[in-house]
Design goal:
- The protein is of the alpha/beta class and about 675 residues long.
- Among the domains are: about 325 residues, Up-down Bundle (ABC transporter transmembrane region fold), CATH 1.20.1560.10; about 70 residues, Rossmann fold (3-Layer(aba) Sandwich).
- The protein is about 65% helix and about 10% strand.
- The protein has 24 helices and 12 strands.
- The strands form 3 sheets. A 6-stranded mixed β-sheet has the order 8-9-10-5-11-12. Strands 4-3-6-7 form a 4-stranded antiparallel β-sheet, with no helix packed on it. The chain has a two-stranded antiparallel ribbon with strand order 1-2.
- A hairpin with a 2-residue loop joins strand 1 and strand 2.
Length: about 675
């Protein structure tokens, strides 16, 4: 339950509602036990024909008689001790036995005196308020039972409302903290975790945590209080028989301990299975066009059915354990009731106070006394039965809590320096010094595949660098080091001589504009998507960026202009239009470093030409990296340097004309692209 304990800081923020909930829980339990306490006077009346006032008078007389007899007995024992009677007769009790008998008698006398005080108060204060007629008294008890039920249910209602409010606010805080943690992580960690796994944590896992919190704030608070009060009441009725009933407690503890371990493992596997279900759904819906075009709906149905089967097996495992808990607990609880009640029934029917010489009652018990004891034990049994039903749910909640906080504790692979150095606007050079980079692996700290191998490179300020090479050669990985989406395992990346690991990350990224191959837009208006690059941009600056990126060319034909909603991921726009909006978003940022990662690889020629025309002017006085598969005539008009990558290494860097003469790989790539355009 250590993971559930980590919820405490979040819960304490709602301490006021929590305190109110606890008081309401206590009220619910007290009224529930008060209902059970009415069994005794009702049984006295029905089984023995004795009204409550008659019972009080009889009990008061009995207690007064015990006080008188006890007083005489104490005086007698004190006298015998003072005269040392045991010395004169060998048949008398010795001094130790007399001292023990005196202590016992004094204890019984104090108990009897307390009974006299209690019953005298009841006779003076309560009895005059009660009906004397037997039927009226029974009607009074039933009316009081109805009133207590109303009070109990009212407390239960408001307690549930308080708990529900606390749980929802706590879940909101945890979800926000989880989201903040996720936003601080690096791209490698997120890529390894995958979106479906994250969605499972934000939905299924948090639902399990919330469900467990509702149980903790509801039944886990109310039922133990009820059980404790019932146990206390049972001890006051007959502590010996009540203690006898607790023989089954160790067996119950062993049962919960063993099943708890199995439940934790089963719940962990179930949640992992749910993550795989989310993955199948995400892959299917995100690739819906491909699924339908290849007529593979059946394949995805079978994959989902397979994952559903696995999830069913994991869920069934939990159900089996859960189904075993409740009857086992109820059987052991009934054994406890049996052990406590059967000797009590023997004492009542045989009119005795002991069995086999073991005293089990201070005085002879009546049927009403036995009924009270049985009612108290049943009052303990009911909370136990309810708590056994929530045990598996609480274990699942604890497992989900572990998964949630494990992700919340996840550290980013990109470490922020403390203290971080300020980074002035880039104006000199960008240096890669013996950079080696390995991809991270899932569930291990061992480095994975090497993506960059000893890359050493100096890019002067203002250069426009075309990064070319075959697939998997490390082009995108290299430029991803600049905004620190990932960090090299060895070597340094410097901007104007400052190691990026030592500078303020927010200042670094504020100087960088990124346009990727997969255009990532939000379901907002075009203006809001452009403003995303600089939230405080003025309307004039936004309009200028839209003009410069040729967004205005197609926006002017839309009814709502820049305020047009573009839909999920911008699906209402064409690929070229989306890229122009993404470019405008980068332009409005006025970055010192611009990165275009395959930004024109999936758009039409006209849109590519528009983007290149924009870049021709915009790349001046800033350093630009353009990751591309091939060099086009329009690109060559403003590219100043070409970087050729192969196998994670920078094998050539220089002007286009120079590399055509000296770099065979670049010659091959350029010629292949030329033949493709000619074809």
């Amino acid at each position: 339950m250590e993971s559930l304990a980590r919820l405490i800081p979040f819960v304490l923020r709602q301490r006021r509602a929590l305190v109110v909930s606890v008081f309401l829980s206590i009220g619910t339990a007290v009224f529930a036990v008060a209902q059970l306490s009415l069994v005794y006077p009702a049984m006295k009346l029905i089984l023995e024909g004795q009204t409550y006032d008659e019972h009080i008078v009889a009990e008061l007389a009995r207690a007064q008689k015990q006080v008188t007899e006890g007083t005489h007995r104490v005086e007698e024992l004190e006298t015998r001790l003072s005269k040392k009677v045991w010395l004169s007769s060998p048949t008398e009790m010795n001094e130790r036995q007399l001292q023990r008998e005196l202590r016992k008698t004094r204890s019984e006398l104090r108990s009897a005196q307390w009974d006299v005080t209690q019953f005298s108060w009841l006779q003076r204060r309560i009895i005059p308020l009660l009906p004397t007629d037997a039927f009226n008294f029974l009607a009074f008890i039933l009316g009081l039972l109805l009133t207590l039920t109303l009070l109990k249910e009212t407390c239960a209602y408001f307690q549930e409302m308080c708990v529900g409010g606390v749980v929802q606010r706590v879940m909101q805080s945890i979800r926000q903290q989880l989201f903040r943690t996720t936003l601080r992580l690096d791209q490698q960690t997120l890529a390894l975790e995958t979106t479906p796994k994250l969605m499972s944590r934000f939905t299924f896992d948090l639902y399990q945590v919330a469900h467990g919190m509702v149980l903790l704030g509801g039944k886990i608070v109310v039922e133990p209080i009820k059980a404790t009060l019932c146990i206390a009441y049972a001890f006051s009725a007959n502590w010996r028989l009540t203690l006898l009933a607790f023989i089954c407690a160790p067996a119950l503890a062993l049962l919960f301990g063993g099943l708890g371990k199995k439940l934790k493992k089963a719940a962990q596997r179930q949640m992992e299975s749910m993550s795989r279900l989310f993955r199948v759904l995400d892959e299917t819906f995100s690739s819906f066009r491909i699924v339908q075009s290849y007529r593979n709906e059946g394949l995805h149905r079978r994959r989902l059915a397979k994952e559903h089967t696995v999830y069913y097996e994991k869920a069934l495992r939990i159900l089996k354990i859960d189904a075993l808990v409740s009857p086992s607990v109820e059987f052991l609880a009934m054994c406890a009731v049996f052990i406590g009640s059967l000797p009590g029934a023997y004492l009542v029917l045989r009119q005795k106070t002991s069995i086999w010489g073991i005293q089990l009652a201070a005085e002879e018990m009546t049927v009403s006394d036995l009924a009270l004891l049985y009612t108290c034990m049943a009052g303990v049994l009911d909370p136990g039965r309810k708590l056994s039903g929530v045990y598996s749910k609480l274990k699942k909640s604890a497992t989900a809590c572990t998964r949630v906080f494990a992700w919340m504790d996840r550290a980013s692979l990109v470490k922020t320096a403390r203290p971080a150095l300020p980074l002035p606007r880039h104006s000199k050079s960008i240096d890669f010094e013996d950079v080696i980079f390995h991809y991270a692996q899932l569930d291990t700290d061992e480095p994975g595949r090497k993506a960059l191998d000893c890359v050493t490179l100096t890019v002067p300020f203002g250069a426009t660098v075309a990064v070319v090479g075959e697939n998997g050669c490390g082009k995108s990985t290299l430029v991803n080091l600049l905004p620190r989406f990932c960090d090299p395992h060895s070597g340094r990346v410097c901007v104007d001589g400052m190691d990026l690991k030592s500078v303020d990350l927010s200042q670094l990224r504020a100087q960088i504009g990124v346009v990727t191959q997969e255009t990532l837009l939000f379901d907002w208006s075009i203006a809001d998507n452009i403003r995303y690059g600089k939230p405080d941009v003025t309307d004039a600056e936004l309009k200028a960026a839209a003009d410069q990126a040729h967004v205005t060319d197609f926006v002017s034909r839309l009814p709502e202009g820049l305020q047009t909603q573009i839909g999920d991921k911008g699906h209402r726009l064409s690929g070229g239009q989306r890229q122009r909006v993404a470019l405008a978003r980068a332009i409005v940022r006025d970055p010192a470093i611009l990165i275009l990662d395959e930004a024109t690889s999936a758009i039409d020629t006209q849109s590519e030409q528009c983007i290149h025309n924009t870049l021709r002017d915009f790349t001046k006085n800033r350093t630009t990296f353009i990751v591309t598969h091939g060099m086009t005539p329009s690109l060559l008009q403003f590219v100043t340097h070409v970087l050729v990558m192969d196998g994670g290494q920078a094998i050539a860097f220089g002007a286009h004309d120079s590399l055509l003469k000296t770099c065979p790989l670049y010659q091959r790539l350029f010629n292949a692209q030329t033949l493709k355009r000619a074809g």
